[in-house]
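For practice. Any example?
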Amino acid sequence: MSFFMKLKSSPRFREKRGKTYIMPTLYGASFGLVCLLLFGIAFASTNNAVYFLCFFMAALGSQSLVHTNSNTEKIEITHLRAEDFFANEPSAIYVNVYNPTQRDLQNIQFKFSENFQTSVEKIKKGERQEIIVPYTTVNFGFLQIPNLNISSDFPFHFSRSWKKYYSDLTICVYPAKKGFSQFAKAAFIQRSPESQSLDDFKGHREYQKTDSPRSIDWKVSARMQKAMVREYDPQDSRKITLRWEDCLQTLASEKKSQLSLWIDLAEKNNYSYALELPNRSLPFGSGPQHRTLCLRALV
């Protein structure tokens, strides 16, 4: 770990918006100690060759500091964007960068944390690039992305310069896809028996705990003296209703994860699907726009 990383972790250190910082790495600190040692030897022996070597190394180190600092300071972030994604799944933030200088900027790292970072070997003079920085989160909702850290240790790794980019970008993260991969049996039963095709009807069977009360045939139940439900063949039905009450989970977050999984499966299997939540209902539909509308309703 470089020395500047230890300094950043100190509670006394507070980074300021838009300011570039630079600190020596362990390699750079060792290089500086060697320079001091050579200076001491040259002073004690009055050896001009050692003096020359000492001052040459000092000049090299100073020039390296200037280049490293400029490498980070001059880079500009023009735009950030991100597409909706599921919690606990890998995604990315797209960072548009611009090099306004008349020289190439090299070996620049962009990161949100140690686990989410990417490196760019070169950004040519006057060039604009779109950098893809990996990102994921366990939380869902409309979330603001963390601060972006831009750093570099080019050209000799003697020091590392860095600055923070603060963005107001908000991303939509869907609930993680968790739960049962099979649709609830009640999903194939529409609001009214008349809306279900007679060709899909298989018969009646005894009510089970996993069945929705909507599926109960009250006339048949009264005649049989026990709760009976209508059963339809899901293989023949291409319209399903994904309901909050059909999720067997107890926690609201787990129910959202179950519905998130079902919506994704319904879209992949070319179903026409509706969504019923406690405070909102979405009609039947399919396609990317309908999928996005349903998933955002869970956030």
